[in-house]
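ugh finaly. both done.
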Amino acid sequence: MAAAGNLRHARFVKALSKAFEPLEAGRVDGRITPPRDYPIFVRREKGELEQLHICLGLPALPTTSRQRYKLLVLNTVLGGTMSSRLWQRIREGSGLAYSVFSSVNSFADCGFLMIYAATNPSAGDMVLRQIVEELVRLKSEPIGDKELRVAKDHLKGALMLSLESSSSRMSNLARQDIYFGRQSTNEEVLRCVEAVTTGQLQALARKLLVGERCGLAVVGRLSRFKTRRSALEL
């Protein structure tokens, strides 16, 4: 149980004890079997949609991975902000998508990197091609120092801002205790982000961005979308 805000610790613990002590403890064996990769290619025709929706996914890292901060920085560079590569190339540079971004979702046993774009049905092939090219570039070219600096500063600011509300602080306390058995200080988190190097990011990209493990879902008007599985070669 976790709580944050205007409360008295002893009083809070006493109330919880009174409420939960009568309950019998459950049993958990602690064994977790990670799910297997399922890199399918799904196409669904939906003529009523004005935009073509593209979602590309790759297996990533579980919450407790020691490389989790590297993945967060890598995602920030790729598509986590309006200064990211995907946003700047596909929306600002080419004007092909109103919405394009990437995100990381991590769980106890696994995680995934997701890339999403919404575009005109006639531009779907081009958008997907540019996404794939940016993934390849992360593997083949080191990230520049200036770009890395911008990504780190943005990520550190976002992490600190995410703890401003009582509810987010409460969730963070619970998550830290459940997954790590201890509380990480803000200073420790910032140091971990700052310690990430260009070489580490390129090595992680080469490890995670593998075409054979990539899944793709496309929904919308598909008459002009010709991309096949072979285009996802990373």
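ok and the 2nd:
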Amino acid sequence: MGLSIAIISIAKLLLLLCAVATLLLRKGLSRDGVALAQTFTLPAVLAVLLAFVLSLFWTVAPLQEAAGSLAKYGKLLLILAMMALIRDRREALYALAAFAVTQLLVVISSWMLFADMPVAWASSRTTVSHYTVFSGYLDQGIMSAVFAALCWHLRGLVPGRFGPRIAAAAAVLSLANVFFVMVGRSGQLVGVALLSLAIMWQLPGRYRMIVAALPFLLVTVLFFSSPMMRDRLTQLKTEVQGYSAKHDASTSSGIRLAFWRRAAQVIAQRPLAGAGVGSWSSEYDRLERLDNPRHEDINRGSNPHQEYLLWGVQLGIPGLLLIAGFMLSVLRDTLKMETPYARAAQSALLALAVACLFNSTLYDGLIGDFFCVLIGLLLALGLSKPDSLPPTQHTT
């Protein structure tokens, strides 16, 4: 295990211990921060984790594999930890500033790599080929698209006369990186979704119905203006046609389609309770062996590259309802916030929902931690009581 993974794991453990200690030592769940007990997110997260724990009683996966998968979903506690530990809006803004600085570093570093400039801190295996800094192109593209949305919606929080303009420039720089430098199609689709949402919010109410056409219009524009996106979309069409004609599962899209087909079969066979936490690999191998007795087992702890189907495999139809309920609970909490904070949080939630269509986003390590920390941070920011800070500047 790499040293960086060990450090991150230890940091997450310390964060969890701090959250538990805070809740035990503090008289209430909140002072000037989030009234955690009054949120919809708290029971939603606890219900999800309870369902996965209970599924240990019927899972078909080996105990070690099931426990490992359960631990991965334990990252949802980071959402509650952020809301419990952040005491007021000022602390939330400090945390958000630290978050923004690190994300801006990634975006600028990626542009430096694209310009063939040396970046000593870049440690990704695809640094040279895909201009990634610390992670893969899939994760970095999604994170940069989300960062662009945060810069835009919260630009009024940036201090100084030119603060909002600097934030808007950072948003443009990040989106341009996603569309013209990164090759990750998931990040590009998330970028299109968030850009469409931002445009809709800027339109007068009577014109907002055209938002349904915005994603298609943006994709068309980007198809002709971005060689990177045009190549990736053309490749997507070729891969899907290859799988449809020859069941070619050797490509990125082909693997996903093959996995999704098997996942749907598992859900159809076990619709009421699923096959239990961590069961995807076992169930996939079982179904593959029925068609091909020489099938070699896939890696333990793998996933079908689709979060919704993964929950359906493990928990059946109730799992699909649980993940939908979790996202709706977060959405309900964002409706209590002031406009800029609500839009930022809803953008992050939409990005998660879109990313989950093509990846097991919450199950995966890096990108899952990113979303859990970010959603917890934005909930803490928006639900905390306003303090003596200057009012948020609303810019158009």
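summary for the 2nd one i guess: The radius of gyration is 21 Å.
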